[in-house]
Amino acid sequence: MAKIQARNVDDALYERIEQSAMKNDRSLEGEIRTALREYYQPAVSAEPAVSERERWQRETGRRLKWLFDRLMADNFFREFGGPRPLDTFDLVRLGRQLNTSPGLLMDIMEGHQELTLELADAIAQNFDASADWLLSDSGQPFPFVRPGTQSYREFFFPDGSSADFTFEFLRIAGGRHDGTLIMLRQEVKTKRITPAVITEIFYLSSAMGNGGYGNLKRFLLFLKTEGAHLPINTYDWTPEHPDFDFWTVIGKHHPVYFQDSPRRSSARWLQQVFNGEDPDDWFSGGWTSVLREIGDAPFGKRKQPGADVLPVSSDGAESE
What we know:
The structure is a single chain. By secondary structure, the chain is an alpha+beta fold. 39% of the residues lie in helices and 9% in strands. A five-stranded mixed beta sheet has the order 3-2-1-4-5.
């Protein structure tokens, strides 16, 4: 290290340095080194001004990086035995699926290139994501449907679609969101998944009020009649802890998160209700007549003309 020697130091200055060294429990040389280091701080160059376009480009790149990382964490490709970090191989694969260069994806994630509207739409279509979220941080990364605010028919039989679908129903079993229903609609040909959540208007559990049981009955009768031919698999989904917050997961994970989760197990609750059986006392407390009506309804009975929209009670699923 460099060495400095100083001559003709004023006696009064020397005395002040000596007193300061004693006060700070340092040697005289140590005190001088500290004073010089604090006085001669390295010059810090000011951050260059960033335009609104550059800021948007960087933020969009960060969201794209987050989305790709989440796909890997949720085991989107599934053939690797579990979640793993994003690497160059994955970017090549993502680029091939999007018909674009992996180098371009890297540049966008690093904020060096713009995410175009066309590429954002392609990413949304291929990975069940939201182009609006990618481009403007609007909404959720992985959008979901709330069928309780519209006709159930629109979710199970999308207008203008001739595609074949399979469905998975996952009932949250336990915790603060016990009885919440998650539904996954998957197009057979493209494998695209549309998630939906039913909460508040009814729960798949006990202790609801009149409005909740009425809404549950209408939903189940719709499935048993109009939806009798739909391929539906049912599951219980057990939270990792009682205080699990469902809203920190839905919309923030790809739907395969629910399909691959070790907390998912096959269940028969839908078939039980269709057969007039009560799973875990859902209809206790004077609501067995609702269960009996569902069990007595024949499979596949056609709806009456003009009954497209199922009414939803505004009372919700609150307990009486």
